[in-house]
Design goal:
The structure is a homodimer. The first copy, chain A, is α+β, with helices and mostly antiparallel strands. Chain A is 35% helix and 29% strand. The first copy, chain A, has a 4-stranded antiparallel sheet with strand order 3-4-2-5. The first copy, chain A, is elongated and about 60 Å long. The first copy, chain A, binds a DNA duplex through helix 2 and helix 3. Chains A, B: Keywords: DNA-binding, Transcription, Transcription regulation.
Chain lengths: 156, 156
DNA sequence: ACTGAAATTTGGGATGC
DNA sequence: GCATCCCAAATTTCAGT
């Protein structure tokens, strides 16, 4: 899990390989090999190097939550009573499956979380019955995502 | 790209398969087959069904931006002059590679974006030279993520 | 660092229960 | 909906340049 080497250098071939795999993690290595004109073994070597550098941190299947009936994404800014409450609050938030992200942030709030709910009713229940009940949570501000128009990774 | 079937039902075996692939999209299907005790062909059938339902929306390699020297993640709430400016603003934001997400939101702001920068200096330049320059952008509020303690997908 | 080839494993279809 | 069988294709290693 090291990540502070001097800063990995990647060349144009690495970029091409990564672009294929960032698009579809199951693209066959031999298919990439044919497309960019080097051998499968060479790509293999490069991928092992990239993995060792820590740049490749894995691959994931992406699910579309809408198909399971989860249609409401929201960001919630949370004010905590005192800094001391932070680790406890995060620990409690981890137990709530609807919470997908949690950031300590500068600015108004102590933390900013992203949640995924079935609908607005579910979101309201989540706020009242779970988030607001956490000890140390004093106030929240909710921003429902009506539409996500950009969703991508770092561009290489 | 259909996603509004009646609402896909998935059973325990589907969940096991998905959990393996959400963790590592390149897990061999035959390995999953051995672990959960059914044949590779059966998993194949189920994956085709899940893909057809729209629940599986693809797979991605995940890069660790820190290794490339990108260490500052921030959320920026943007106030736009009038609703009319929205599509234009989003179009301009798409052209900025540092912008990874863009949400139309309820609440204070018109839109909320997530950006990835090398450092605070880079973030400041991005705000002053690019975001604030977009026509229609009247004011912004920035929240730097000091630490992301939760990062996951919908739990199945 | 890349190639080419060998050994092994996997993918994905056909067929039958 | 699942298992077995089967072959084409992909993965992965390794000696050679």
């Amino acid at each position: 899990m090291k990540s502070n080497q001097k800063q990995t250098r990647i060349d144009g071939i690495d970029k091409k390989i990564l672009r294929y795999l960032m698009e579809d993690a199951r693209t066959p290595i031999l298919e990439i090999a044919r497309n960019i004109g080097i051998s499968g073994a060479a790509i293999h070597q490069r991928l092992r190097k990239l993995e060792k550098s820590g740049l490749l941190s894995g691959s994931k299947f992406i699910l579309n939550p809408k198909v399971l009936g989860y249609t409401t994404t929201a960001y919630i800014g949370i004010f905590l009573d005192k800094a001391m409450s932070n680790p406890y609050a995060v620990q409690q938030l981890k137990k709530i499956p609807e919470v997908l992200e949690c950031h300590y942030t500068t600015g108004n709030w102590s933390i900013l979380i992203k949640v995924l709910c079935r609908d607005n009713e579910h979101l309201m229940q989540l706020l009242n019955k779970k988030i607001q009940q956490i000890e140390g949570v004093s106030r929240t501000e909710t921003f429902i995502s009506l539409d996500q128009s950009i969703n991508r990774q770092i561009q290489i």
